[in-house]
Amino acid sequence: MTSNMPPCHSRRRENLTTRKGLVRMAQTACMVAMAALLMPLAASAQQAFLLPRAQLEINNVTIQAEVAATDASRSYGLMNRMSLPENQGMLFVFEQVDAPCFWMKNTPLPLSIAFIDPNGTISNIADMQPLSLDAHCPTAQVLYALEMEQGWFARHDIKAGDRVKNLP
What we know:
Blueprint: H1 7-50, E1 53-58, E2 61-68, H2 71-76, E3 88-98, E4 111-116, E5 122-128, E6 142-149, H3 152-155, E7 164-165
Parallel strand pairs: 2-3
Antiparallel strand pairs: 1-2, 1-7, 3-6, 4-5, 4-6
């Protein structure tokens, strides 16, 4: 038995099936791309809302700092943040006095970091470049590190030897 359908009919069916498959693939790709874009935003938003905050003071300048006091929050830090509001940053609190080094992997925001000893005295300040694996270390044993937008400490004339008040 032979088919009465012209050969182009089967081609039309294949094209329709192929188009539907392509549309589904495009929709899936779009959803995956949207999720990839939103995940860092969701992660940083979640972190910003879940971390405790401290109001610090250096040379009569008030800082609102998110407090990263757990291994997880210290490891994540300010990754994936695109900006910081004026006078806001992140305070890293360590469990014991040490000389922890910092890098900027997955951090697109240029930052400055102040390393702070247990008495609240800044031992040194370093500028860190975005997405860099360069290590930035304290010049002395510290209990805290404060990350702010790059240049913040210089703009406020804050330097090594200055004291940070209200540390947790």
